[in-house]
Amino acid sequence: MPPNNPTKTKRIVLFNHKGGVGKTTLTVNLAYALVNAGKRVLLIDTDPQCSMSSFFLEEKFLDKMLDESEGDTGNTLWTAIKPVSEGSGTLADIKPERIRDGLFLAVGDIRLSEYENSLAECWNLCLSRNRRGYLCTTALSRLVDDLAKATKVDFVFFDAGPNIGPLNRAILLDCSHFIVPAACDLFSSRALKTLGYALSEWITTWQRVTEMAPDGTALLDGTPKLMGFIPQGFRVYGGRMANAPLVALSTLGPRVIDFVWKPLQQAYGQPAKERPTKLKLGEVKDLGILVTESQKQGQPIWDVSGGNAASKAESKKVFADIAKRMIEATA
Questions:
Q1: 68-93: per-residue pLDDT in tens?
Q2: What is the pLDDT of residue 187?
Q3: Pairing relation of β-strands 103-106 and 97-100?
Q4: Which residues form the domain of 275?
Q5: 104, 121, 275, 297: most buried, per Cβ within 10 A?
Q6: What is the rounded CA–CA span in Å between residue 26 and residue 181?
Q7: What is the pTM of this model?
Q8: Contacts of 111 (CB under 8 A, 6+ apart)
């Protein structure tokens, strides 16, 4: 496997095509934890549902941005990508919203679904060595290059929708690392098989695309690494995990290895005999009303007004520990 570009900002996505595994909540709080650790972070809201943008921005302000995204004052991801997606021009300039010192947001847009439609066609164009295919497929990556440089960040996080579609394919192939968030239930565990199969197919196909690409063509790195997985949302009683999620958790690690890590090793032509032992980055229990209040207040879980002080302190430590693991893994 070729190494990721060492000069490029680390790009990470929490990805699982199963819904309800807390991707946006985990991403937001990990971003805050990294900022607390002295890192600069850029969030890219690529989910057409705009959940992350809704977390940070007031409803009226976000609605106004979405209404104006195709005009001269537009400032969403779709504003920037629309000319490339439609084949009418190059990337337009946008500026990310500053959330706080060291934390920035590139605002999402429901019209990114139109870009996704273009990406389906452009993937086939890449396989035909068509220049438009490469320009369209790498448009988001090139935009993120510009935004990351402008904000001088250490980490970029994508907030992706729960599906295995053309947009998420372009995101994963642009990332240096990905993390698998998983609910502690058998449904989430079983979904890993589809996830691993899709990732390995995308990677091997992009390897062929890269080999065929004309000289000087913009390309995605195409080498995402599995950083690990995060079990989350499980109930705790008397300081102990409930029985059902405990059983599911016992199978989650081996399934991540067998259904995600192994297919990636095969896609990269790497040996898979020595199984990794430290893929679990941390555990995030069900934080109940704290998550709801975090979303209402647009704050990290540990900084919300109200709620149980001990649970807030515990959550801050949990996310700080995961952030530390991430910094070490990307050093």
A1: 999 999 999 999 999 999 999 999 99
A2: 65
A3: antiparallel
A4: 10-329
A5: 104
A6: 8
A7: 0.94
A8: 48, 69, 70, 78, 82
The SS3 call for residue 225 is strand
pLDDT over 90, % of the chain: 76
The full DSSP string for 142-164 is HHHHHHHHHHT-SEEEEE--SS-
Neighbours of 177 (CB within 10 A): 19
Q: How many domains does the chain have?
A: 1
Amino acid at 106: A
Query: 């090793």: which residue's tokens?
Result: 265
Distance, CA of 270 to chain centre: 24
Closest CA to 103 of 13, 26, 41: 41
Beta bridge partners of 44: 106, 158
* C-alpha triplet 84, 85, 87: angle, nearest 5°: 60
Asked, for residue 2, whether it belongs to a domain, the answer is: no
Three-state DSSP state, 242: coil
Q: Which two tokens stand for residue 84?
A: 């490339």
Residue 1 in any domain: the answer is no
Rounded distance between C-alpha atoms, residue 216 and residue 119, angstroms: 21
Please provide the size of the chain in residues.
331
In this structure, is residue 5 part of a structural domain?
no
Q: Quick check: 49 and 19 in contact, CB under 8 A?
A: no
- Amino acid at site 44: I
The predicted-structure confidence for 220-234, as pLDDT tens digits, reads as follows 999 999 999 998 865
CA 82 – CA 68 distance, rounded (Å): 13
The count of other CB atoms within 10 Å of the CB of residue 234 is: 19
Q: How far apart are CA 60 and CA 191, in angstroms?
A: 37
Q: Coil, strand or helix: which one is 129?
A: coil
CATH number at residue 183: 3.40.50.300
